[in-house]
Automatic annotation (TrEMBL):
Protein's UniProt name: RGS10 protein
Organism taxonomic ancestry: Eukaryota, Metazoa, Chordata, Craniata, Vertebrata
Keyword Cell inner membrane annotated: no
Sequence segments annotated as region (Disordered): 160-181
UniProt GO molecular function: G-protein alpha-subunit binding; GTPase activator activity
Length: 181
């Protein structure tokens, strides 16, 4: 698989959970989950694999899925070890998102575009300025529309129905009895 396909697969299924020192989910992640957490910030949405999946679904309908794919590719690129692998991934990101012939070109300011010569000496933060531009574009444009979209609202409704189901209430009552004895 190409780097981009691997990165997309990885982003959907293996986003790391944020844990405390004992390996348990941190308390900030326990208080809010799902759509409630997504609605607090784009950062929280992008930390959740299900959130990324739903946001991608929304952006696809808006013909701007390349923005989140570029952002995810840059996040994965920062973790790349070794000059050769970094050169290969940098070239793939450039050819996929930044080149004038890119198949999924992102909309970044013209003077911010990278020339192919920088690909010879890659470094982990070489795409940071462009990634920040795309993040801000998503944050101040797509993200607010996503929170009003049917995709988000339907997912939120399903979550609320699950939380209010008799099975969930019974489990909560059992847990309450266990911890209050």
């Amino acid at each position: 698989l190409s780097f981009l396909k691997k990165m997309v697969f990885f982003s959907i299924f293996f986003f790391p959970e944020i844990n405390d020192s004992e390996g348990h989910p941190s308390s900030s992640h326990q208080t809010l989950k799902g759509t409630s957490k997504w609605a607090t910030s784009l950062e929280n949405l992008l930390e959740d694999p299900e959130g990324v999946k739903r946001f991608r679904e929304f952006l696809k309908k808006e013909f701007s899925e390349e923005n989140v794919l570029f952002w995810l590719a840059c996040e994965e690129f920062k973790k790349t070890q070794g000059k050769k692998q970094m050169q290969e991934k940098a070239k793939e990101i450039y050819m996929t998102f930044l080149s004038s012939k890119a198949s999924s070109q992102v909309n970044v300011e013209g003077q911010s575009r990278l020339s192919e010569t920088i690909l010879e000496t890659p470094h982990p933060l070489m795409f940071q300025k462009l990634q920040d531009q795309i993040f801000n574009l998503m944050k101040y444009d797509s993200y607010s529309r996503f929170l009003k979209s049917d995709i988000f609202l339907n997912h939120k409704k399903c979550e609320e129905q699950e939380e209010n189901s008799p099975e969930a209430q019974t489990a909560a009552k059992r847990a309450s009895r266990i911890y209050n004895t």
